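Bug #77: duplicate submission created two jobs. Keeping one. Sequence:
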Amino acid sequence: MTKTLDLLKVGQGGVVTAVGGDGALRCHLLDMGIIPRTKIEVRKVAPMGDPIELHLRGYELTIRLEDAKQITVEVEE
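Kept job's structure:
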């Protein structure tokens, strides 16, 4: 099932299928290691729901929900 990253719950993960966004945002996400075919998992969500902490490529990364909406993942059931 394909979803955007902002819709995943804590503990859910998947494989990145597409990275959207405009120019600098897209480049920034790609520079942080969020590229297609990367396994990614939601580890934590801030108390107010934004930002979210992700685990990918052996490290933790925190991004805003607005940015997470640009990332499409194939969810692992």
